[in-house]
Write a structure and sequence with these properties.
transcription regulation; Regulatory_HutP; 141 residues; four-stranded antiparallel β-sheet; Regulatory_HutP_sf; Hut operon positive regulatory protein HutP; activator; 4 helices; globular; 45% helix; Hut operon positive regulatory protein
Length: 141
């Protein structure tokens, strides 16, 4: 069951849930469920070497947020998603530098709260670690 949003903590939890979805069907179901209570969401997969991929990960988050209607095509909205994504990536950087990452980016917005969660497997071959990074920004509605 989905509860009514209450602020940044709740929206952060929604972004994490979106990042943890296992397939497009689950993403779609959660997106519809959250939309019923006014929360806009998006999710996008990503994989590659961490350091050279940081800019591409940020770009994918912004593009996904715009494509799914989470944000408008404005400097403030794009900057909020980019900043929250960079914050989330900074939290996993100590584990990920020099290694490959693969996983999902989850984005959620309710009113002026925007959260981005990154859930990545980090590693080399089959020796994976997992990590979640989370960023939040406020953006005008």
């Amino acid at each position: 069951m989905v509860h009514a949003p209450t602020g940044s903590k709740r929206i952060a939890a929604v972004a994490i849930r979106m990042a943890l979805t296992s397939d497009r069907e689950e993403e779609k179901n959660l997106k519809n469920e959250f939309a019923k209570i006014g929360i806009k969401t998006a999710a996008v997969d990503y994989g590659g070497e961490f350091v050279p991929s940081v800019a591409k990960i940020v770009e994918r988050a912004v593009v996904a947020a715009k494509r799914e209607g989470v944000i408008k095509d404005t400097h403030a909205d794009e900057g909020a998603v980019a900043g929250a994504t960079r914050e989330a990536l900074a939290q996993i950087m100590p584990k990920a530098v020099g290694l490959n990452v693969g996983g999902k980016i989850g984005i959620a917005r309710y009113q002026d709260h925007i959260s981005v969660a990154v859930f990545f497997g980090i590693g080399l071959l089959h020796l994976d670690e997992v990590a979640i990074g989370l960023g939040h920004r406020a953006a005008p509605q």
